[in-house]
Amino acid sequence: MTLIDGKKLSALVKADIAKEVESLKQQGYKVPHLAAVLVGDNPASQSYVRSKVRSCEEVGFESTLIKKDQSISEAELLDIVRDLNEDVSIDGYIVQLPLPGHIDPDKINLAIDPKKDVDGFHPMNFGRMTLGLPAYLPATPQGILHMLKHYSIETSGKKCVVVGRSNIVGMPMGILMSQKRDTGNCTVTIVHSRTKNVADEILSADIVIAAIGRAHFVTADMIKKGAVVIDVGINRVDDASRKRGYRLVGDVDFEHVAPKTSFITPVPGGVGPMTVTSLLLNTLKAAKKEIYG
Ligand code: BQF
């Protein structure tokens, strides 16, 4: 079993980004600038946004954090999005999810200028990705593709089971893994809450991508010997022995699953850090106008 070290790979990729930022500066360009909008005081969201801002600092990007109270109206948030679309000093931006219940995330997503949509959630980028056109790829799937590539994991002709069908991970991941591309060419099955026999489907997989958000959902009896297991889950479980009162666990029962695998990602330190680093890669592409010219 080989541990896929997302933290280490992240550090390698960030070092490359930092070099490129230096070279851009040398050539007289301004540094890439990411903005993040954070609504409310969800502790997990605060921690995600903090880690994005910190990562910007690490690679020499400029960053702007726009914090708004939970009570902000949808119209007010749409105004902020329009301002960010117009602001030529901002290369790309994200609106941190989840949003409060009174705000329709689809409406906000549609208002984002696809050229600045470094999360890759806008239908323009999702559609372009699906058609195999240049697009900002959503950060988590992009991070996973980087991991598969870096560890030289063969995907062509393999059976890949994606657990979960969210718009930000499961669906795009299934599409990307099935495409005729590097780290693609898989036979993909997406399993979800209406799937008849989830365990048997997962058991047939050469590559399992777990993205359902349920702690320890994937157990050792569901894993074929030698499978590759990618754990996207970030679940908080109570743990009185930790100073924070909780610890992070994945969607995979790592302790029992790991011995059966050829490759596995840990939580924390697996997919999470690569998600944040992929957001930086998209912001660099935005600054260089690589996707939309
Ligand atoms: C790590 C996210 C669910 C819903 C909204 C490093 C992150 C997480 C873990 C991180 C996530 C998850 C992010 C680790 C961003 C990944 O060391 O394991 C970094 O910051 N993430 C998000 O912005 O929104 C989410 C998960």
Order of helices and strands: EHEHEHEHHHEHEHEEEEHEH
Silhouette: globular
- Largest sheet, order of strands side by side? 1-11-8-7-5-6
Strand content: 15-25%
- From the alpha carbons, calculate the radius of gyration and give it in angstroms: 19 Å
Give a written overview of the molecule:
The protein is of the alpha/beta class and 293 residues long. It has 2 domains: 28-113, Leucine Dehydrogenase, chain A, domain 1 (Rossmann fold), CATH 3.40.50.10860; 139-272, Rossmann fold (3-Layer(aba) Sandwich). The chain contains 10 helices and 11 strands. The strands form 3 sheets. It has a 6-stranded parallel β-sheet with strand order 1-11-8-7-5-6. The radius of gyration is 19 Å and the shape is globular. The structure holds ligand BQF. The site of ligand BQF has 13 residues, from α2 and α10.
Layout of helices and strands, plus pairs?
Blueprint: E1 2-3, H1 6-26, E2 33-39, H2 43-59, E3 62-68, H3 74-86, E4 92-95, H4 105-111, H5 123-131, H6 139-150, E5 159-163, H7 170-178, E6 187-191, H8 198-203, E7 207-210, E8 228-231, E9 235-238, E10 246-249, H9 254-257, E11 263-264, H10 271-287
Helix pairs in contact: 1-10, 2-10, 6-10
Bound molecules: ligand BQF.
